[in-house]
Amino acid sequence: MKGYWIILGTDVIDADAQKEYSQLWAPICKKYGASVRLLDPGALLESVTTKRVLVVEFPSYEQAKACSIDPDYAKARSVAFRAYKREMIIIEGNLA
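^ that's the sequence the OP posted. Answer follows.
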């Protein structure tokens, strides 16, 4: 079954950090066969601080978990936290 990261984030507060994160994330994304989709902001119906929702799809739940503990991702994640505040969950399934 596929694996997903669901990322709930604020607006970007550091554009330079966001750009750096994107550069760090690109090879990691390719390594794990992931694809990223930014959901339509209209899909967010109830929120206090979340402004953006991203879904990262992996070929398997195991790959989603492995990517989250990859040392290269740990570096990228620290940059992401400079770019914006976020929370992430990992789920297994087949989302439409």
